[in-house]
């Protein structure tokens, strides 16, 4: 389609991005040389980049509304604008033992600084990476009060609600203080 990756890297824009940006203000294309997805929203150029778990957890600790960092993961991806990380997705084994069949992964944390379209890019990149690793299913959960627009934008579908409304981890023999929201959650699956 005439997209020149070298031109995009050197000048920060390609001819197709300029044309499409004037028409719709959003442009996405796959750079041929590095096989990365670049999205231009207005003047902000977002790119999927690798990130390690420590850096991703530090971002979650600084920006996530209601969850803490995770203890482990299979892989992490970030969305960046230049050298600045704008969001992270941390993907690991499913928290539910029943869903941990060896073929399923879960997006345990998706966190951004509010940059437009960053969540959708992260969910899409996580699914592409999981498929490339041989996994057949990728799931995540949202609170019932959250809309899920980023997930729908990334092509995910809501497959149901959790059976219980956030029971928590506290039991009489092992009391715990729940620091996360205890409400019904929606399960989403990548399509």
Set out the fold topology:
Blueprint: H1 5-11, H2 15-24, E1 26-30, E2 37-41, E3 44-50, H3 53-63, E4 75-81, E5 84-92, E6 104-112, H4 118-132, E7 137-143, H5 149-153, E8 156-161, E9 185-190
Parallel strand pairs: 6-7
Antiparallel strand pairs: 1-2, 2-3, 3-4, 4-5, 5-6, 7-9, 8-9
Structure described in brief:
By secondary structure, this protein is an alpha+beta fold. It has five helices and nine strands, in the order ααβββαβββαβαββ.
Shape: globular
Biggest sheet features: 9 strands, mixed
Low-confidence stretches: 1-35
- The helix/strand series, from N terminus to C terminus, equals HHEEEHEEEHEHEE
Radius of gyration: 18 Å
Portion of residues in beta strands equals 25-35%
Widest sheet, order of strands: 1-2-3-4-5-6-7-9-8
Structural class, by secondary structure, is alpha+beta
Number of strands: 9
Ends apart, CA distance between termini: 27 Å
Describe this structure in words.
- By secondary structure, this protein is α+β, with helices and mostly antiparallel strands.
- 25% of the residues lie in helices and 32% in strands.
- The chain contains five helices and nine strands; from the N terminus they run H-H-E-E-E-H-E-E-E-H-E-H-E-E.
- It has helices spanning 5-11, 15-24, 53-63, 118-132, 149-153; strands spanning 26-30, 37-41, 44-50, 75-81, 84-92, 104-112, 137-143, 156-161, 185-190.
- Strands 1-2-3-4-5-6-7-9-8 form a nine-stranded mixed β-sheet, sandwiched between helices.
- Strand 4 (75-81) and strand 5 form a beta hairpin.
- The longest helix has 15 residues, at 118-132.
- The protein is globular, with a radius of gyration of 18 Å.
- Mean pLDDT is 81; it is low at 1-35.
């Amino acid at each position: 389609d005439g997209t020149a990756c070298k031109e995009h890297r050197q000048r920060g824009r390609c001819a197709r991005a300029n044309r499409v940006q004037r028409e719709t203000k959003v442009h996405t294309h796959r750079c041929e040389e590095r096989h990365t997805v670049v999205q231009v929203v207005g003047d902000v150029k977002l790119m999927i980049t690798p990130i390690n778990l420590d850096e991703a957890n530090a971002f979650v600790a600084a920006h996530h509304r209601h969850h803490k960092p995770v203890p482990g993961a299979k892989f992490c991806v970030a969305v960046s604008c230049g050298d600045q990380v704008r969001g992270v997705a941390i993907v690991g084994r499913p928290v539910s033992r029943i869903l941990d069949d060896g073929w399923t992964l879960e997006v345990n944390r998706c966190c951004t600084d509010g940059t437009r379209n960053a969540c959708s890019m992260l969910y899409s990149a996580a699914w592409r990476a999981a498929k490339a690793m041989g996994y057949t299913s990728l799931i995540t959960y949202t609170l019932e009060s959250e809309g899920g627009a980023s997930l729908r934008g990334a092509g995910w579908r809501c497959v149901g609600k959790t059976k219980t409304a956030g029971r928590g981890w506290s039991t009489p023999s092992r009391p715990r203080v729940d620091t996360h929201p205890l409400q019904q959650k929606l399960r989403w699956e990548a399509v």
